[in-house]
Design goal:
Helix content: under 10%
CATH architecture of the largest domain: Beta Barrel
Low-confidence stretches: 1-16, 111-115, 123-152, 154-161
Radius of gyration: 30 Å
Distance between the termini: 35 Å
Number of helices: 2
Number of strands: 14
CATH topology of the largest domain: Porin
CATH class of the largest domain: Mainly Beta
Order of helices and strands: HEEEEEEHEEEEEEEE
Strand order of the largest sheet: 7-8-9-10-11-12-13-14
Number of domains: 2
Length: 360
Amino acid sequence: MKLLFVLLALGLSLPAFSLEVDEKLTVRILKTSETRKTLMVNRGTEDGLVEGDHARFLVTAGIVARAVCIKVAPTRSVWSVYRLVNADFLINDSVMTIKITPPVKITKDESQALVQDDTPTKLPVDPQALGIPLAEGAQDIAGDAGMLNENTSDGDLRGLEDVTIVERNFELFSFLNISGLSALTKADVGDKKFSNSQSSHHIGFGGELYSRREREWYSRFTLLGGISFMRTNAQSYNGYSATNDITEFSVGTNWHPGKMPSATYQFIPYVHLSLNVGSVRSSVSSGLNRPTDPNRLANGSTSGVSVGFGYKFYTKEGWGARAIIDYYARSEKFRRDEDDNSFNRTVAGPRFMMGISYRW
C-alpha cells in the first residue's frame, strides 16, 4: 500500500511535457481552410504542444505566418493564424518548422496592425511545383470535428474535414465466409483414405485493437481476436449425409503496409495472420433407417492457421467494411469411436470473406 502511494505521488509530481519558448518542431500541414487562417498539422500533445501555444511557421525563405494553437490532440493540432506573411506556403502536405514564441497581444484594430496580411494566390495542385518538400509516410494524424471551437469561422471549418479516425482505436467486426475446400481423411487402422470436396459457410465476430500513437513503428500492426461458427453438410444420392459443426476461436494480427489503418474514405491494404483452436462435432446418418446402417457421431478438437491479404474501408463516423482472401488450414483430431478407431482430418484451401465493422 505504501508503494502505491509513493508511485502515485511521483506520478503527480512529474511535470507535464511541453515545449519551451524558442524550441522548434518540424510539422506537416494536413489541411487548410479557404482563407488559410486555420491550419491542421500532424503534431500534438505527444510532441509537447499544448492549447494556447504561440508559434512562428518558418521555411528557409523566412517567416510564413504566426499562429496560436486552439485545439490539440495526441497526434495533431489546429492553429488559428493571426498574421499571414506568405500565404502561398500554407498548402496541404507542405513541411515547415514551427518555433514556439511568447504570447502576442492580438488587436482587431486594422489601423494598429504593423503588417498587412498576405493575400493567397491560386496555387498549383502539386505543392512540389513551389519547391516545398513533402513529408513521406506522415499520415499520422487524426481528425475530430469537435476539436474546432467557435472562434473559427464557418468558412474555415469547411476546409478542415476529418482525415483519420486514429482515436477510434477499437473495432468490432463481423464477417461471412464462402469457401471451396478439399478434405482428406485417414484411418489409423488399415489403409483407408477418403477425399472429397467440402464447401462451407460460416459467420464470425471479432474485435481489433489499434494504436493511437501512429508515429510509432508498431502502429501499423493491430491485435485481433474472434469466434467463428461453421457448419458443413453434404448428402449423397442414396441418402447418406455428413454434417460437421465447428466452433473456433482465433487470435492474430493485421499488418497495414501501405496506408495507416486510421485513414478514411480510402482502401487500406492489410496482411492477416491468425492461429485458431476449437472443437468439432461430426455426424453421419444413413437416411434409409436400416439397422445395419446406424447413425455415427464423433467429437474432436481443432487447430489451424490463416494467412491472407485484404482491404479495409472506413468512414469518418467509424463505420467500415472489409474483404479478405486467405489460405486456411485446419487439423481435426477425433476421439476414439466405439470400434476403438481414431481419425485425423485435414481441411485446407483458399477462402473469401467479407464483413462490416464499427470503430469507436
